[in-house]
Amino acid sequence: MSELEAYLERLSSGARSEPGRFTIDLERARRQLRQHRSADPAFYLLKIFQALVAGGALEIDVHLDLGRVRLAAEVEAGSPLTDQADLLRALTEPDPRGALRHLAIGLDACADQSVDWGVWTDMWGWGLSLHQDQLETQQLTAQPGWAGPGHWVEFRLRRRSLGSLAGMLSERKAVSDRCRYCPVPVRVDGHRLQPSWPIPHGDEEFPGFYLAERYLCEPRGRVGRQVREDLAVATSPQAIQPREAATTYQVQLVEGAEGGWLRCRMALALPHPQKGPDRLVAVQAGG
Questions:
Q1: What is the 3-state secondary structure (H, E, C) of the chain?
Q2: Which of 208, 230, 242, 256 could form a disulfide with 246 if both were Cys (CB 3.0 to 4.6 A apart)?
Q3: Which residue among 167, 192, 217 closes a domain?
Q4: Mean pLDDT confidence for 234-262
Q5: What's the confidence (pLDDT) of residue 51?
Q6: Model pTM?
């Protein structure tokens, strides 16, 4: 049994985080997932962003400068991002799932730099530092001043001087282009990003009708036969308020048998007609 396996066994038996230093084989663990890695220097940042959203972030605070990158968020109780044993396993397994999959890919994509991940749950916390194949765990006893009651996570990256400006500009563009669609509030260097779709925030540039609109609901079994697959005319679309009045066609979604609101896992809207070349941005988990 390796030192890391013994450490995970102690955590599984109920022990709290303790200082430790381990060598992990990221190359072996990530071989399957690296085929999906992008050459975009902001790729790692979007994966961390996706991890936060998929892990139940309530609001995300982003800080980008020439020296460091920082993302902090309050997360829901029971978030997979706060479980140390699950995160360590995700870093060493070939194919983790859910929020930990995004986090593992993001941490691996920037492991050639100095990266820290911190977690605070009420009055105690734990952290890990990752650089290349060296992993160090530590106890975090002091709640940081920016974190209130509840459960908080923080990602920090200390930049190498080479290429810092280009990297920062690429990251800012990625956050502006993609994270504005995030379903939770986002602040970048203290400034709120434009409220994200589907919350209306002013006139849209395209006419008010779609080629199609489709919803996938969570959990899937809740809706059953009450989703009509035919295109129906929507008299008062709630998702987007267009500048030009026109008929909106969409798949009609009615309430589930249990009543109340349905949680939408994914929505796709294709505006029609287009005026010349255009771009369709597909966003998963806010990034």
A1: CCHHHHHHHHHHCCCCCCCEEEECCHHHHHCCHHHHCCCCCCHHHHHHHHHHHHCCEEEEEEEECCCEEEEEEEECCCCHHHCHHHHHHHHHCCCCCHHHHHHHHHHHHCCCCEEEEEEEECCEEEEEEEECCEEEEEEECCCCCCCCCCEEEEEEEECCCCCHHHHHHHHHHHHHHHHHHCCCCEEECCEECCCCCCCCCCCECCCCCEEEEEEEEECHHHCHHHEEEEEEEECCCCCCCECCCCCEEEEEECCCCCCCCCEEEEEEEEECCCCCCCCCCCCCCCC
A2: 208
A3: 192
A4: 43
A5: 92
A6: 0.66
